[in-house]
Amino acid sequence: MTLFDCQLAQPMMLLLLPLVLLPWFTRTQIKTIAYANFIVADPISKLIGISLKSLASTVIFCLILTLAGPYIPEKIVQRVGSGAEVLLLVDRSRSMDDPFVSLTKKAVGGSTSRSVGRENSKRRVANEYLLEFINKRPDDRFGFILFSNKALDILPLTYNKDAIRAAINASSLGKGISETNIAKALIKAAEMYSTQTYRGSRTVLLVSDGGQELSPEEKQTIATLYQQENITLYWIYMGRIKNLASTIPVNDDGWTASRPEKKLQIFFDSINIPYRVFETDSVASFSATMDTIDKQQHQTLIVEEVMPQQSRTAPLLWAAMLMTLLLLMTQLYTVWGVRKAHKAS
Q1: Which of 88-98 are b and which e, b meaning 16 or more Cβ less than 10 Å from the residue's Cβ?
Q2: Dist CA 246 CA 262 (whole Å)
Q3: Helix, strand, coil share of the chain (percent; to 5)
Q4: Helix intervals (H) in the chain
Q5: Beta bridge partners of residue 329, listed in sequence order
Q6: In angstroms, how far is the first alpha carbon of the chain from the final one?
Q7: Rounded Cα–Cα distance for residues 312 and 321 (Å)
Q8: pTM of the entire predicted model
Q9: Which domains does the chain have, with CATH numbers?
Q10: Are 229 and 186 contacting, i.e. CB atoms less than 8 angstroms apart?
Q11: Could you give the CA distance from residue 7 to residue 21 in angstroms, rounded to a whole number?
């Protein structure tokens, strides 16, 4: 039941409303007074009596409404914020369980050394900085897709930060498999956006250490969907290929034109959407990448907020209490006046 934009948890309690008439049916002793015509009319006393009865009726009315449990139901409100809608595509293949290495060149000999932190897997590093990224962006709406040979939409786009944190932490459990199907993850991400109302900047954040050779059909589907949905794509690459974004081949053992990563990079660069690849080979570079994305994705965004259910019983209880105190004070004043008159006589 709705009452003044409020709903009632127990509307049947309104059947008690006739009780507000009780103060008007109080019985008093009727005394016969001789020479009644000599009694002066006292309209002020009558007005005070009517006021006190009205006050008592109002107290009963407030208490009955309190029992009915008025509340404003949960609702969704929109406001203009700053941020983006972000779908996180995280690689769950077996290679993401490998240590996250920092490739550095020695001053002498030009050989390569590895600096590996304890329990410093790629998956652990990625999850840590994704959680930090989420914590810095209160207005963003996040979704989470985990992929290996299949793409699993773990969490649809949501404003619930606790849910997205739990999804990321849960993705750290277990072991991955050797296969990686980036195409399915990219298509599923675009399809998730296609079912949503456009609210502002749409971003897909791909975190992977490998690539994939796409079929012509997959390329066409991805290009069409990402252009239609106006999606910005970031690829955080955690693999060993160097100069992935370079269009000029370099003489390096970690790069060849035939590698799937390079072919995927060329495809991403050709589909006419906002796109950027970040090559991360250390914790510091991964952190800097997340900071760069954070600075770039602060655009006008329509934010939906869920306003929780709000009880409206407190004002009624306060009003009933204050009016009851006023009635109690008038009764105490009456008792005091009668005693004073009795002593005077």
Answers
A1: bbbbbbebbee
A2: 9
A3: 45, 25, 30
A4: 43-68, 122-135, 161-170, 182-194, 216-228, 260-270, 283-296, 313-344
A5: none
A6: 58
A7: 15
A8: 0.65
A9: 2-74+309-344 (no CATH), 77-306 (3.40.50.410)
A10: no
A11: 25
Helix (H) or strand (E) holding 306: strand 299-307
DSSP for 130-146, please give it.
Answer: HHHHHHT-TT-EEEEEE
- pLDDT tens sequence for the chain (345 residues): 555 678 888 889 999 999 999 988 866 555 555 555 666 677 887 888 889 899 999 999 999 999 999 998 887 777 777 788 899 999 888 888 777 764 433 333 433 333 333 467 888 888 889 999 999 888 888 999 998 888 888 888 888 889 999 999 888 776 767 678 899 999 999 999 988 888 888 999 999 988 888 899 999 999 999 999 999 999 999 887 777 776 655 555 444 567 888 888 889 989 999 999 998 888 888 889 999 998 888 777 776 767 788 888 999 999 999 999 999 998 888 888 778 877 776
